[in-house]
Amino acid sequence: MTGIVALYIFMLAAFTGYEVIAKVPVILHTPLMSGSNFVHGIVLVGAMVALGNATTGLEKVIGIVGVVLAAGNAAGGYVVTERMLEMFKSSGAKKRPGAH
Amino acid sequence: MTGIVALYIFMLAAFTGYEVIAKVPVILHTPLMSGSNFVHGIVLVGAMVALGNATTGLEKVIGIVGVVLAAGNAAGGYVVTERMLEMFKSSGAKKRPGAH
Amino acid sequence: MSAVSGDEARLLLIQASYFLTAFLFIMGLKRMSSPVTARSGIVWAGAGMLVATIFTLLYPGMGNYPLILGAIVVGASFAWVSGKRVAMTNMPQMIALYNGMGGGAAAAIAAVELYRGEALSRTVGTLAVVGGIIGAVSFSGSLIAFGKLQGLIKKSYRFNGQQILNLVILAAALFTGGVVATGYSMDVFHVTGIFALALLLGVTMTLPIGGADMPVVISLYNALTGLAVAFEGFVLGNAAMIIAGTVVGSAGTLLTQLMARAMNRSLGNVLFSGFGDTGGAASGGAGVTGNMKPIEAADVGVMMAFAQKVIVVPGYGMAVAQAQHKVWELCQLLIDRGVLVRFAIHPVAGRMPGHMNVLLAEAGVPYDLIADLDEINAEFETADVALIIGANDVVNPVARNDKSSPIYGMPILNADKAKNVIVIKRGQGAGFSGIENALFYLDNTRMLYGDGQAAVSQLIQAVKAV
Amino acid sequence: MSAVSGDEARLLLIQASYFLTAFLFIMGLKRMSSPVTARSGIVWAGAGMLVATIFTLLYPGMGNYPLILGAIVVGASFAWVSGKRVAMTNMPQMIALYNGMGGGAAAAIAAVELYRGEALSRTVGTLAVVGGIIGAVSFSGSLIAFGKLQGLIKKSYRFNGQQILNLVILAAALFTGGVVATGYSMDVFHVTGIFALALLLGVTMTLPIGGADMPVVISLYNALTGLAVAFEGFVLGNAAMIIAGTVVGSAGTLLTQLMARAMNRSLGNVLFSGFGDTGGAASGGAGVTGNMKPIEAADVGVMMAFAQKVIVVPGYGMAVAQAQHKVWELCQLLIDRGVLVRFAIHPVAGRMPGHMNVLLAEAGVPYDLIADLDEINAEFETADVALIIGANDVVNPVARNDKSSPIYGMPILNADKAKNVIVIKRGQGAGFSGIENALFYLDNTRMLYGDGQAAVSQLIQAVKAV
Ligand SMILES: NC(=O)c1ccc[n+]([C@@H]2O[C@H](COP(=O)([O-])OP(=O)(O)OC[C@H]3O[C@@H](n4cnc5c(N)ncnc54)[C@H](OP(=O)(O)O)[C@@H]3O)[C@@H](O)[C@H]2O)c1
Ligand SMILES: NC(=O)c1ccc[n+]([C@@H]2O[C@H](COP(=O)([O-])OP(=O)(O)OC[C@H]3O[C@@H](n4cnc5c(N)ncnc54)[C@H](OP(=O)(O)O)[C@@H]3O)[C@@H](O)[C@H]2O)c1
Fold this sequence. Notes:
The complex is a heterotetramer, with two copies of chain A (100 residues) and two copies of chain C (466 residues). Chain A has 100 residues and is an all-alpha fold. Chain A has helices at residues 3-21, 29-39, 43-52, 57-86. In chain A, helix 2 (29-39) packs antiparallel against helix 4 (57-86) and helix 3 (43-52) packs antiparallel against helix 4 (57-86). A six-stranded parallel sheet of chain C has the order 3-2-1-4-5-6. The site of one NADP nicotinamide-adenine-dinucleotide phosphate (NAP) has 32 residues of chain D, from helix 12 and strand 5.
C-alpha cells in the first residue's frame, strides 16, 4: 500500500467513523463505547501474526502476551456490549397504554 | 492501486457519502442534489488528462467535447448551488417575535 | 536525472492536491447538509475543484494546453452565464442539464480510452465500458429530463412493452461492451455501438416518465453520473475522481430514495409506472359535495389581524405568482401585531423538493418560522386561520380517505383542521394531479380568488386598515 | 509452483475476509448507533471478528499455532467469564479493563517489531513507535481507571507541576522513540525505554483525574487504542486493523466529546483540572433555607394513584438499591390505572453515561416511556407528581441560580416545577458533588426516607391498597 493510498483510507475511515457516531442518542453512549472497544479487538489478528512469525524466546513471550491481551479485548468487549444491548430490545411489541 | 485497496476505497467512500447525507433535512434536498452534482464535476480533471494525452484528431475532438462538458458541469453546478444556498443565510440575527 | 525527479515531484504534488480536493469535497458536502453551514459548503467544495484543476495542468507529458484552456473557458462561461440567469423556478432543469454534461464528459473519457484501441487489462476495460455506458445514459436521459421540464418536450411517450424494449437495448449495449472489454474486438464500429446504444437507452428510459417524477429522476441520474466518474477514475488511476464519484454515487442514491419517499413513491414506481401524467380531472370528484364560498380580502384581513395563530401553506401557485415577498410582508405585519405565524411546508409542494423553502428563504423568511409536515400537522387544530396560497394537492383531504384517488396515501397537510381556512387561487384550476379538492368545499373554507401576488397585496392593505 | 500459487490464493482469501470484516464492523457500528437495531449491531461486528480470526490462521509461513490457540483460549475465556459475571453497575471499569488490554496488545505488536531489530523504513518505524507509545499509554491509563472505579485506588494523587511532569515524560518517550525509529539505535535498552516511559505516562496522566470524569477518560483511551491499532495495522500492512482502528479512533474521539458535553465539561477540563474530587459538603448550603418535610408511603400512594401524570426521576441511588424492577412494577400499576407515566433521564444521572437507561431497559421499561432532559423538561410543569428515586445532583436547582456552586451551569431536570415532588432517599446523604440540594427544602417537596428498593415496595403496596 503506497503512502498516499494509506492516507486516503485513513481519511475515509475517519470520516466514516465520525459520521456513524454523529447521530447516536445519549442513551447509547456507553454501549457504543463498549462496542467500539470490541471493534479494536481486531488487534488480535495482528498479534496472531506477530506471534506466528516470532522466532526468539523474547518475541514469543511478547507475542503470547499480545495475543492473550487482544483475545481478552475482543471476547470481553463482545460479552459486555452484548449484555448491555440485550436490554435495548425493541419495546414496540409490549407498548403499554402509558406510552405516547 | 491494487484491486483490493481500490475496493476498500470504494466501500469507505460509499459509506462516507451515505452517512453525510443521512441527516439532511428535506429543505436541503434540492441544493444538496445540486451540490453533489457540482462535486462530480471533478470529471474535469480526467477530461483534461484525456485531452492532454490525445494525439489523433478523433481523440482530440472527443477530448475537447469532454472538457467542454465537464467544465460546464463544474461551473454550472457551482453557480446554481451557490445561488440556492445563498438563500439559506442564517436567520439567527434577524429572529422575529413570531419565532418560537 | 533532474527531469525524472522533477516529474516525480510533480506527480507527488498532484497527488497531494487531489487528497486535499477529496477532503474539501467531503467537508463541503457535510456542511451543505445542515442549513446553518450550507452556504459555506459549496465554497469549500469549490475550493477543492479549483485546486484539482490547477494542479492537473502540471501533469508531466501532457500537451494540447491551448485546446484544454479554450475548452474550459467555453464550457465554463456558457454554464456560468446560464446558471446566473436562470429563474429560481427553472432550477431543476438546469441541474439536469449540468448533470448530463458531467455524464457526457465521463462517457467522453471512456471513448478516448476505447477508441485509442490499445489493449486494456480486462478489469480496466470493463470499468471503462461500464462507466461509459452509465455516463452516456445519464447524458441523454438528463437532456430529456431537461427538455421535459423546460417544456420543450410536452408529451410522455408510452406504449406497451416499453420496459422490454429498454431491457433489450441495455442487453445489446452490455453485449457490445463485453466484446470490447474482453479485447475481442476494439474496432470503431463496436466502440461507437456501445455509446449509441447507451445514448438511446437514456432517451427511451426517460421519455415515458411524467414531469411530476422528474426531480427524482434527475437525482437518480446525478447518482449515476457520480458512479460513471468513479469508474473512469479507476481507469485513469485518478483518486480524486474515484472518491468524489463514489461519494456522489452513494450520497445521490440515498438522496434519490429520500426524495421518492417524501413524495410517497417508490423508486421502481417512478421509473416504471408514470404517475405524473395519468391525471386528467377524470378521477376526482367522488364524494366532493357542496359549493365553494368566496370571501372578500377585507374580511380576511380582519380575521387574521385578530387571530392568535396563523399557519401559511404555500404551494406551486405562490411560485408562479412570485408572491413570496408579499407573503412575508403580510406575515411581518401580523407578527408585529402579536399574531403567531408559522409556515407549513409540504415536501412536494411546488415542483421540486424544497421549492417552497428556497422561495421563502429568498424572500428572507427566517427558517425557524418554517416547519415541515411532521412538525406542524398537529398544530393546525390550534390555528385560527390556515392561509393557503396557491397550494392544492398538498392539502387535499381525499388523499386521506378516498382509496380511489390517485393521490390516496400521500401524507398531506391537515389544513382542514384549522378553525378557518382561506384559499387564495385564481379560479377553478386543478392542481398538478388534476383532481378535485374536497377542502375547498368544507364549511370552514372560504375562497379568495385572484392572482397570488395581487390577492396578498390586498390582504396587506386590509390588515393595515384594521 | 503449486505451493506458490497456493500461497497466493490464501493471501487473496485472507484479504477478502478482511474486507468482509471491515464491512461488518462498520455496519455493526452503524446499527449500534440506533436503539432499534443496536442489539443486532454487536452480532454483525462479532461475525466480522470471527471471520478475520479464522482466516488469519491461514497466513502462509506462520508457525507457533499451539501458542496462538492457547493464548487465545486463555485471554478469551478469562474475559468471557469476567464479562458475564460483572454487575451492571461495574460495567464502566470492565470496559476500561478490556480497552487497556487492546492497547497493551497494540504495544506488544510494536515491541515484537522493534525488538526484532531489523531495520524498518523510516515511515514504518515511526508508525510502530508512535502506535506503541499510544497503546502503552492506553494500557496503563486504562488499568488505573479500572482501579479507581473498582475502588482499588481511592485517592486522587495531585501536586503542582503535574502537567509539566507529564510533558517531560512524553518528551522523553518521543525522543527515545525517535532514536529507535530513525534507526540510529535499535538496542534493547532504547526499545524498552520507550515502553517504560509510555507506561509511566499513562499512570501519571490518569492518577490525578477524579472518579466523576472516568467515563470520559475511558472513552478517550478507547479512541487512543483504536489509533494505536490503526498504526500497527500500517506497520503490518493489515487493512482490517487500519480501517477498524481508524474508525474507532475517530468515532471514539467524537464520542468522548459528546460525553464530556453531556456532563457540561470540556475535554481539557477533564484531563487537566479534576472536578470529580474537589467536592466536600463545604461549598453548598448558601441560600438553602427551610426544612425537609417527611411523608408516609400510604399518602404518596394515594397521591400517585389519582394523579394524571407522574414523572419518575431515577438517579444513582436507584442503581445502588437495584430498585429498577420494583420501580417498573410500580409504574405498571399506575399505568393500568390510567396514569400517564414518563421517566426523565439526566445524561449524567448515575455513574456512567446512559447508566439509568441501561438499568431501566434491564427492568423491561419500554424506551418510548423514557425521555431525556431536552424532551421532558417542559413537561414537569404539567406533572402532578415528580417521583425522585435516589437522584440528587441532577435535580438540584442551585445549578440554575447559584453562581458559587460547583455544579452551577450544569443543565438539570426541572423537577421543582412539578405540583408535588416526592424524594426517596435514605437520609441526609449528599450527592456525588457533595453539596446541599435546595429542592429538598421547597414547599412542594416531601421526603420519603428509606432504601430505594424498600421504599418503592411500600409504594406498590400503597397503590394496590387504594
Ligand atoms: N415538489 C416536487 O418535487 C414536485 C415535482 C413534480 C410534481 N409535484 C407535484 O406538484 C403538486 C404540488 O402541489 P401544490 O399544492 O404545491 O400545487 P398544485 O397542486 O399544483 O396546485 C397549484 C394551485 O395553484 C393555483 N395557482 C396557479 N397559479 C396561481 C397564481 N398565479 N396565483 C394563485 N394561485 C395560482 C392553481 O389554481 P388556479 O389555477 O385556480 O389558480 C392550482 O390549483 C403535487 O401534486 C406534487 O406531487 C411536486
Ligand atoms: N453519569 C456519569 O457518567 C457520571 C460519572 C461520574 C460521576 N457522575 C456524577 O454523579 C452524579 C449523578 O447524580 P445523581 O442525581 O444520579 O446521583 P447523586 O447526586 O450521586 O445522588 C445519589 C443520591 O442517592 C441517594 N442514595 C444512595 N443510595 C441509596 C439507596 N440505596 N436508596 C435510596 N437512595 C440512595 C443518596 O442519598 P442518601 O445517602 O441520603 O440515600 C444520594 O443523595 C452527578 O453529580 C454526576 O456529575 C456521573
